[in-house]
């Protein structure tokens, strides 16, 4: 079975590689020639645990290849996955230009039946738009070529994407023909052996499912952060509350951790996009709007704590930032809370020394040399007045506090992920602050 993946970003590259690992013949397409050249030489455009090894393995074994020409794939493949970028507009709407480009190209050069599967996260109704652009090209050529559209949203967690794809909780597929359903069932058949469920539904529902899932998870995060902020006012402990409510099977324990807010490429964009679609359809989604507002406020919480600790005077203070990525096991710093904290520290005259195991080069692309990038956490604390933990990398969990205390000028630790023990740090001579306690 041969398929084509259009787009070699996070979703496209993981999708193509995992299908190849299961024996499918896969060609990944991208208009970025430099990226394709690097992929052909085994150089990854993103960091994802285990991905590089799988790409090289399947490329060497002839199941995975990379090209810049979608047109050349139209004779060999009849299943196309559109996994191109869908960046947000200034008003929160989703930019579909790349999705439309894929549809237009396929419609312009297709010679036989094909199935175009949208993998990118797109608003409800996008399938109709895609179908219209394809049909327009076919009409212009005066050819009668049958085709189908399907929606197959991704539910990959950065840092665990390979596992999520190979052993998914569920696979959601939106179709409107039996032919498309049978093709998708055959394509995912090797995965059925792992025991997961394929959930078939109409295309509009599949498009909405992706947004509903991400917005629900984002809502849980913002809810817990609101509760955590109240806990600090009334003397309660957010970790105890998490255990108390998480034990209720109707609620569950996932995504109930208080912290510095969510970031990344999915939650912020999808929240804005769903709200924009709701406004266009005359629906006021008050809860979704509030989720975003809470999250934006939460990203400022650690800076506000520092400002309060130093009585509003951060000028000349040196702050060590541990973790730049929005979450562990990724180099993604899009919408990362660390960027908000760093920006405010610099504006208030503080000096920032930062370290992240993976994401420093990505951070440098955005903020340049405005901070000092260090080789490890111990280098960040030299003459530092405070430490701020932004990302809960495993490497940060058991540092030598005695060594750190000797290197620091101050003794402040602000834990944005609640991973340290207050009593232990107090014995080491630190003043410890966290979220929701």
Describe the structure.
This protein is α/β, with parallel strands linked by helices and 437 residues long. It has three domains: 2-201, Rossmann fold, CATH 3.40.50.720; 211-298, Orthogonal Bundle (N-(1-d-carboxylethyl)-l-norvaline Dehydrogenase, domain 2), CATH 1.10.1040.10; 301-433, Rossmann fold (3-Layer(aba) Sandwich), CATH 3.40.50.720. It is 44% helix and 14% strand. It has a six-stranded parallel β-sheet with strand order 3-2-1-4-5-6, with helices on both faces. β9 (318-322), α13 (337-347) and β10 (351-355) form a beta-alpha-beta unit. The N and C termini lie far apart (55 Å). The mean pLDDT is 95.
Estimated helix fraction: 40-55%
User: From the structure provided, what is the oligomeric state, counting identical versus distinct chains?
Assistant: single chain
The CATH superfamily of the largest domain appears as: NAD(P)-binding Rossmann-like Domain
Shape: elongated
CATH architecture term of the largest domain? 3-Layer(aba) Sandwich
What is the tally of beta strands? 14
Return the average pLDDT rounded to an integer: 95
Q: Which segments are poorly predicted (pLDDT under 50) over 5 or more consecutive residues?
A: none
* Tally of DSSP helical segments: 17
Structural class: alpha/beta
Strand order of the largest sheet: 3-2-1-4-5-6
Rg over CA atoms:
24 Å
> Quick one: CATH class of the largest domain?
Alpha Beta
Number of domains: 3
Sheet of most strands: 6 strands, parallel
Beta-strand portion reads 5-15%
What gap, in angstroms, lies between the N and C termini? Answer: 55 Å
CATH topology value of the largest domain: Rossmann fold
């Amino acid at each position: 079975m041969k398929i084509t993946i259009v787009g070699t970003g996070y979703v496209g590259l993981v999708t193509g590689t995992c299908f190849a690992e299961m024996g499918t013949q896969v060609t990944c397409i991208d208009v970025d020639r430099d990226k394709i050249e690097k992929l052909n030489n085994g150089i990854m455009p993103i960091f994802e645990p285990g991905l590089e090894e799988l790409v090289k393995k399947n490329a060497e074994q002839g199941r995975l290849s990379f090209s810049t020409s979608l047109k050349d794939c139209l004779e060999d493949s009849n299943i196309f996955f559109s996994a191109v970028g869908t960046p947000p507009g200034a008003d929160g709407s989703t930019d579909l230009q790349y999705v439309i480009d894929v549809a237009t190209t396929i419609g312009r050069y297709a010679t036989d039946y094909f199935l175009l599967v949208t993998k990118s996260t797109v608003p409800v109704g996008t399938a109709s738009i895609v179908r219209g652009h394809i049909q327009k090209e076919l009409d212009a050529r005066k050819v009668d070529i049958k085709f189908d559209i399907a929606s197959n949203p991704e539910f990959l967690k950065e840092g665990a994407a390979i596992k999520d794809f190979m052993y998914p909780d569920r696979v959601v597929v939106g179709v409107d023909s039996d032919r498309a359903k049978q093709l998708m069932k055959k394509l995912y058949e090797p995965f059925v052996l792992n025991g997961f469920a394929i959930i078939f539904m109409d295309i509009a529902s599949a498009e909405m499912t992706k947004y509903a899932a991400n917005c629900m998870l984002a809502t849980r995060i913002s809810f817990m952060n609101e509760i955590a902020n109240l806990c600090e006012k009334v003397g309660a402990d957010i970790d105890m509350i998490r255990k108390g409510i998480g034990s209720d099977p109707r609620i569950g324990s996932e995504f109930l951790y208080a912290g510095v807010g969510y970031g990344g490429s999915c939650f912020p964009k999808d929240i804005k996009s769903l709200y924009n679609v709701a406004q266009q359809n005359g629906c006021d989604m008050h809860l979704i709007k509030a989720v975003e507002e809470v999250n934006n406020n939460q990203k400022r919480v650690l800076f506000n704590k520092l400002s309060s600790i130093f009585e509003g005077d951060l000028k000349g203070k040196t702050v060590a930032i541990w973790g730049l990525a929005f979450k562990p096991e990724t180099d993604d710093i899009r919408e990362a809370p660390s960027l908000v904290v760093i920006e405010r520290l610099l504006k208030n005259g503080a000096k920032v020394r930062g370290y992240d195991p993976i994401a420093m080069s990505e951070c440098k692309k955005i903020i340049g040399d405005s901070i000092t990038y260090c080789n490890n956490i111990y280098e960040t604390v030299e003459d530092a007045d405070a430490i701020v933990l932004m990302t809960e990398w495993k490497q940060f969990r058991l540092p030598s506090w005695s060594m750190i205390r000797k290197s620091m000028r101050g003794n402040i630790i602000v834990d944005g992920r609640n991973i340290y023990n207050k009593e232990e740090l107090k014995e080491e001579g630190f003043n410890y602050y966290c979220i929701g306690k």
